[in-house]
Design a protein that fits this description.
This protein is mainly alpha-helical. It is built from 5 helices and no strands.
């Protein structure tokens, strides 16, 4: 019997949470490895100069950007009395387009979203 992975849009929330946690662990490991190469003292010095207002502005800009992607994809699927995606599936399509994290192929948003005949 050959195992074939399911599309990520069909995964349950707990499965996706595990995938996101694994990606987070890998990110921390990569950051630790790069900090080792650059020197932990140098990294600590640079991180000490982080500006809180700019960090807050970046987080705010990411939220605005995500909201824009959500509105755009919702509009795309509703155009011309188009298909109305369920909320969870729309969020998955937005995440694929916004971050590229869930995208295994370039056209994930069009492959898994239902189309009108």
């Amino acid at each position: 019997m050959r195992w074939r992975p399911r599309p990520l849009l069909d995964w349950r929330s707990l499965e996706l949470a595990g995938l996101i946690a694994a990606a987070g662990v890998l990110d921390v490991a990569a950051g630790t490895g790069l900090s080792y190469v650059a020197g932990f003292g140098e990294v600590r010095s640079v991180l000490g100069r982080v500006s809180s207002p700019w960090l807050a502005a970046m987080v705010g800009a990411l939220c605005v950007s995500f909201t824009g992607y959500h509105a755009a994809y919702r509009g795309i699927y509703r155009a011309g009395d188009g298909y109305r995606l369920p909320r969870g599936r729309l969020l998955a399509v937005v995440m694929a387009g916004f971050s590229g994290f869930f995208a295994r192929r370039p056209s994930i948003s069009t492959m898994h979203a239902p189309h009108r005949p």
